[in-house]
């Protein structure tokens, strides 16, 4: 299957933001449930356990990664149904993510943002987020789950060129 990268890079005062979007024909509350309720999150990202809430840490199982490790994720902000901000640290580095929802006329846009301290590893990071967001889409509309081989390495060059493409533009 041909997949096309959607990620864009924006420079900020503290680094860069990698931004990917997806649109759903659903109210924001329903999309919010897909990214926050454990049984729905398990369908596209992985199950999680713990007590959710801003300032708390939960454990998420990365079921689509090798060895399916559990990872601690701190919830920085939780503002239903518009904004979820989380952070984590693992062997690959620090992860600071925001999921922002905006609804208009029954359609909700999910704006996924990874705040980056530097732009190293975009060739690996970008295709991974494209895959996960398409997994979210498939979990909601019942379409076949995507295959990671359709994202990596074919999207690697696109994301590696983003820093040279200019702010807010596609490569």
UniProtKB/TrEMBL annotation:
Ranges where the Activator of Hsp90 ATPase homologue 1/2-like C-terminal domain occurs: 25-138
Pfam family, one: AHSA1
InterPro entries reported for this sequence: ASHA1/2-like_C, START-like_dom_sf
Gene3D superfamilies, per the entry: 3.30.530.20
Domain of life, per lineage: Bacteria
Similarity annotation: Belongs to the AHA1 family.
Name used for this protein in its record: Uncharacterized protein YndB with AHSA1/START domain
Protein's organism: Nonomuraea polychroma
